[in-house]
Amino acid sequence: MRERLISACYFLISWKGWVLRRALSIVQFEEMKGKTFTEVRVVEKLCEVCDKPLRTEEKTLKTIEISDYNSYSNLLTRQRAHDRVEVDLEENKIYLYHHDYPGDIHPSCIAKL
To answer: Are residues 85 and 94 in contact, defined by beta-carbon separation less than 8 angstroms?
Structure first.
């Protein structure tokens, strides 16, 4: 049920013309087959109090080609090592999200303490 709801939300977002990034777990092999993707590592620096991002850092890692089901299956297996993995089929990018707590706090969160 949750996966269908996520798929419906992404359809509505893409229909409106916004950037379309979908969770890797709901992207089918047929959609990725024969394409070359650039992997981008995104590190979200989170607030210690509210767990919302303070800033993000992006770094391009490498390019991979999804030529057969085995390469797609390997990608699905590798996604477990990351906090979140999203695919942008329009830009052919795979975003690998990691969360980090650098010890910083939003100024508005300090007032709440």
So the answer is: yes
The answer for residues whose C-beta is within 8 angstroms of residue 76's C-beta and 6 or more apart is 24, 25
Calpha distance 28→54 (Å, rounded): 32
- Contact present, 102 and 45 (Cβ < 8 Å): yes
> CA-to-CA distance for 24 and 57, rounded, in angstroms?
20
Residue with tokens 């007032």: 111
pTM: 0.77
Pair of tokens at residue 98: 């990691």
pLDDT tens, position by position, 91-107: 999 999 999 888 788 88
Whether 16 shows a pLDDT value over 80: the answer reads no
Distance, CA of 30 to CA of 51 (rounded, Å): 35
What are the structural domain ranges in the chain?
23-112
